[in-house]
Amino acid sequence: MKSLWQDADAKACGNDLQLRVYTSRLLGRDKSLVLHGGGNTSVKIAEKNLFGAEEEVLYVKGSGWDLETIAEAGFAPVRLDHLKRLAALPALSDPEMVNQLVTHQTRAAAPVPSVEAILHAILPYRFVDHTHADAVVTVTNTADGEARIRAIYGDKVVVVPYVMPGFDLARLCAERFAAAAGPQTVGMVLLNHGIFSFGDTAQESYERMIALVGQAESYLQEHKAWHVSLPAAAPLPAAAVVRDLARLRADISAAAGAPMIVARHTGGKFLAFAQRGDVATLSQQGPATPDHVIRTKRLPLLGRDVKTYSEDYRAYFSAHEPQAKDRKTMLDPAPRVVLDPAFGLCAAGRSAQDAAIVADIYGHTVDIILGATALGGYRALPARDIFEVEYWDLEQAKLKKGGKPPAFAGEVALVTGAASGIGKACVDALMARGAAVVALDLQAAISTLSDKANFLGIQCDVADEAQLQAAIARAVEKFGCLDMLGLNAGIFPGGCRIEALPTADWQRVMRINLDANLVLMRECHPFLKLAPRGGRVVVIGSKNVPAPGPGAAAYSASKAALNQLARVAALEWGGDNIRINSLHPNAVFDTGIWTEEVLASRAKHYGLTVDEYKRNNVLKTEVTSRDVAELAAELCGPLFAKTTGAQIPVDGGNDRVI
Do 173 and 32 reside in the same domain of the chain? Predict the structure, then answer.
């Protein structure tokens, strides 16, 4: 654990709140300290109110903000005197606590203050930092965790037993702090939860956190319980497990009541941990810290029996719900973490980002479990305590901030020819609707088209069957299955009359425009059958299907054959709940083949301006890649749920087609 403090960066901060932002981000950069919205920080600042009177204000991290990226706007300013008065109350319900926090802010547009705002308020220091440091949690999550913490820190920290976050924790911390704190106190450890540090300056509080966590790391190193290694394990190649993985994803989606992304992870420790002989003992105790439960659920699924896992989850809910302060509605019983000796770790979520967060959190959990085991045995909190946090309204509110899921949340689409033009526009349209998208293209640039979690770009020659199969396997390993296909890749060779058409050119066009799509549809069929909302295929055809022109025999014939293939597939695959529809665009000029020079030349050939040439259709409108892509995406949505085998022109109206 090393301090990242830089004097030059700190001097650039103009006030204490900016320094608070600076050191909060330093903490957030270290994933061994905080993960995905975890932890919180605060600073107490004296300010003049509207009447000119000076009052102390606690600026505390707002709920939903991440320390790694927090800005000044992410801190909620709450009147400190009121928070201290709240701390003196004998009891305070969660709804009333939130009401008091929000109604005593000095800025109406500020975020909801952290549920630990009162705790920050009662600590008599200007700057307070709170993390869920892996090293500290590793020590506390053992049978003799409290004794070990006291051995590490002596009287430098106040030790507080586990209590659910909120008002009760603040009251207990106030009592323990008043009884045990002294001049030597620089921090506070909450067993099975995390650690606090504090100081009169941002640097002092931050560097105390680094030093305290560093002590815990050194202790673990001395006891050979830090960075515990596992024997190397060779993963099965993706191609060998993808069908089983897709079936697992179908079962998880069914249990969740919605499509889910399921991402396989074999790297690092995941596969070796899943293959340990004692994994059932190690993994079935509970999360490292209670707040992780809203992401990972209390326990991972061992193996692939989702039905039994769901039954066990219902039993867990039934056992603990009657003791809740108010009635609870059961969340979906589907697992979020799966440990399997062939799969390694599978992380499930309603989006690729959610699944990535699950994998990240459980990766740290594995480290904590292994470290605690090396110390003598991992011990999580009882199920009752975990249930209280999982069904705590204030925790559930964090998950609801995103609002209603987008139309294609949890679904996976594969698009070919995706680096430019209609294909790229299809990627954008599908991702905008919440889908995870696998984009194939011959261009290497496809791999860097997007850095979002719900995108996978693969350089692939669709005419190479082996490359196509490998790409499909990667797609399923990355996201769990395939729900939608966008068949867009194709070539349009230069004009050539039939009597001059070389056989090799004809075969090349057929291989790319027709044969490759047959292979893709055939190889994807087993996955489309498992799509929770039914498989969908959209074929990007051409105006040349209903209205061919001279000089384009190979292109027109290939697209017509592809169209016929789609019609047959619609007949054959309807029983598998897979629908196939075709779009026939024309004169889409915002693609790579239509340079300004080519456009000007073709317009001149017809005696038109470029703008007139672009709008040379019945509606006198320009057709863009986005127009085609938006309709392609809609064909995959609920509006067309009862449509298959359709052929729809996207051409502004072509007199020959009409």
Answer: yes
- Axis crossing angle, helix 202-222 with helix 145-153, rounded to the nearest 10: 120
Q: Are residues 118 and 75 in the same domain?
A: yes
DSSP code per residue over 588-635: B-SSTT--HHHHHHHHHHTT--HHHHHT-STT---B-HHHHHHHHHHH
CA–CA distance, 563 with 540 (Å, rounded to integer)? 9
**Do 142 and 299 form a contact (C-beta atoms < 8 A)?**
no
199 three-class SS: strand
Say if 609 falls within a structural domain.
no
576, 528 in Cβ contact below 8 A? yes
Contact 42, 22 (CB under 8 A): no
User: Reading across the β-sheet that carries 344-349, which strands appear in turn?
Assistant: 261-265, 344-349, 337-340, 301-302
| Residue 237, token pair as written in the block | 């190649």
Beta-strand ranges (E) seen in 122-209 are: 127-131, 157-160, 187-190, 194-199
pLDDT at 231: 87
Residues 395 and 480 in one domain: no
Same domain for 73 and 16, yes or no, is yes
Scored b (16 or more CB within 10 A) or e, 357-382 reads bbbbbbbbbbbbbbbbbbbeebbbbe
- CB contact at 8 A, 383 and 298: yes
164 shares a domain with 40: yes
Residues 333 and 439 in one domain: no
| CA separation for the pair 658, 645 (Å, rounded) | 19
- Examine the residue annotation and report whether 555 is marked as an active-site residue of this protein: yes
Structurally, the chain folds into a number of domains equal to 3
Q: How much is the pTM?
A: 0.93
Are 15 and 75 in a shared domain? yes
Task: Give me the count of residues in the chain.
Answer: 658
Collapse the DSSP code of 348 into the 3-class scheme (helix H, G, I; strand E, B; otherwise coil) and give the result: strand
411-426 as b/e: b if 16+ CB within 10 A:
bbbbbbbbbbbbbbbb
As a whole number of angstroms, the distance between CA 454 and CA 487 comes to: 19
What CA–CA distance (Å, rounded) separates 625 from 648? 15
Tokens 């969660």 belong to: 94
Contact in structure between 273 and 230 (CB atoms under 8 Å): yes
What are the respective helix, strand and coil percentages of the chain, to the nearest 5? 45, 15, 35
pLDDT at 256 over 90: yes
Q: Is residue 611 part of a domain?
A: no
Q: What's the maximum distance between 2 C-alpha atoms anywhere in the chain?
A: 98
| 419-434 pLDDT tens trace | 999 999 999 999 999 9
CATH number at residue 531: 3.40.50.720
Domain that holds residue 286: 238-400
Which of the residues 153, 162, 219, 555 is marked catalytic?
555
Q: What is the DSSP letter of 90?
A: S
In 10 A of CB 334, how many CB atoms?
21
Whether residue 540 is contained in a domain is answered as yes
Q: Yes or no: say if 129 and 196 are a contact pair by the CB < 8 Å rule.
A: yes
Residue pLDDT, tens place only, 592-635: 667 788 788 878 988 999 999 999 999 999 999 999 999 999 99
pLDDT at 401 over 70: no
Beta carbons of 261 and 170 less than 8 angstroms apart: no
Residue 242 lies in a domain: yes
Does residue 211 sit in the same domain as residue 343? no
Residue labelled with tokens 């006030």? 15
Taking 80 as the threshold, does the pLDDT of residue 397 lie above it? no
Residue-wise over 46-57: b if at least 16 C-beta within 10 A, else e? eeeeeeeeeeeb
Q: How far is CA 21 from the centre of its chain?
A: 25
